[in-house]
């Protein structure tokens, strides 16, 4: 998406398009959803979709960024509720469990999009990599605040637990995956 398109506030029709596209992309996959379907479901013309977003790729990136913004806000609310730095680390696992139960039956939207777009240089992969780097950075920050000796190494372990829990919840159908990851993180933090 161009910087101009990203900076422009969404019109009500543009918001509807993005909301519809987000639901369809997440539930059906980005390759299974065409612009015609998005336009029809949003109650707009295909021209309106292209006028606002420019291309399907730009709409996909807007979807991924918007979903990531929602996740970050959700996670930050849960982190703000935990006082102890160690508890803040564990709160990330509580948050991902809650998120998956309410917003994520198909797992991570970033991983799902990358699975559909094989080119590692594609903007979808770059967007996903930015999101994962942010999460790893958050774990480094939390581990540093909690006073652990090697925050970067601990962050690597925590993000692997986090991402593994997401996969096992959605693909492995392990309803308690995030609880297991939290318990494992708790052991790691002792």
TrEMBL record:
<feature type="DNA-binding region" description="H-T-H motif">
    <location>
        <begin position="34"/>
        <end position="53"/>
    </location>
</feature>
<dbReference type="InterPro" id="IPR036271">
    <property type="entry name" value="Tet_transcr_reg_TetR-rel_C_sf"/>
</dbReference>
<keyword id="KW-0238">DNA-binding</keyword>
<dbReference type="InterPro" id="IPR001647">
    <property type="entry name" value="HTH_TetR"/>
</dbReference>
<feature type="domain" description="HTH tetR-type">
    <location>
        <begin position="11"/>
        <end position="71"/>
    </location>
</feature>
<protein>
    <submittedName>
        <fullName>TetR/AcrR family transcriptional regulator</fullName>
    </submittedName>
</protein>
<keyword id="KW-0804">Transcription</keyword>
<dbReference type="InterPro" id="IPR009057">
    <property type="entry name" value="Homeodomain-like_sf"/>
</dbReference>
<dbReference type="Pfam" id="PF00440">
    <property type="entry name" value="TetR_N"/>
</dbReference>
<keyword id="KW-0805">Transcription regulation</keyword>
